[in-house]
């Protein structure tokens, strides 16, 4: 039995991985200069980042019910077994809309085998869940085996990230105007993580060099068998920073398997240029 893996552009997976594992990826919406674009389809992340550097404020929207229905119905008609691995419900309403659309479709296609998963993850934290599920599906694992692994990954996924400019978090309502102003004045960089699907600050550090050292310290405290994991790194149009922290992680923990990709337009519209994010599995029993 084949399993079709469906996800959305909140996963920040590369085109190479998407193509290799035949993953169906639905786009979030990005609004820029009064134009509507589909994330990963007709707008590049670099365009969004450059617009933000020039003071513009792009907006995003979740995947529409119509788009979800279009994709789900296609596989329902084909009798496919599907798993939709969704972006965190705490950061987007897409998961809830997908559940609603599925329930409506079951009236017409009562045998449609679709499981919808709320990862409570974002960016490549979400992407690593999708990636592992797609690998298992390609290996011919059963749906129950794939779902068990998804459950483990989503409950043990660490997201540790920093933004280059607090202004972008201010625009998204994550910090106050005063905090953003003082942070920029003092070159303070926040270290944040994702807890139960929500963005949570851990610490504020002065200067990027100290931020990277702090991230490595957190990895050391929380990581589980890091040298044998796939470590994901995403960046807001800052490949130099991503490469630097990759080298630091490889040297400290002996990690060899990395995925590095730019943060897509939808997430990047909120985190901004210069963001660096690290994703790995922790050693805790769930979050």
TrEMBL record:
Keyword Thylakoid: no
GO MF term set: lipid binding
Gene3D superfamilies membership: 3.30.1180.10, degv family protein, Dihydroxyacetone kinase, domain 1
Keywords assigned by UniProt, alphabetized: Lipid-binding
Xref: Pfam families: DegV (PF02645)
InterPro entries: DegV, DegV_C, DegV_domain_contain
Keyword Signal: no
Function per UniProt: May bind long-chain fatty acids, such as palmitate, and may play a role in lipid transport or fatty acid metabolism.
Name of the molecule in the record: Fatty acid-binding protein DegV
Native source species: Thermohalobacter berrensis
Higher taxonomy: Bacteria, Bacillati, Bacillota, Tissierellia, Tissierellales
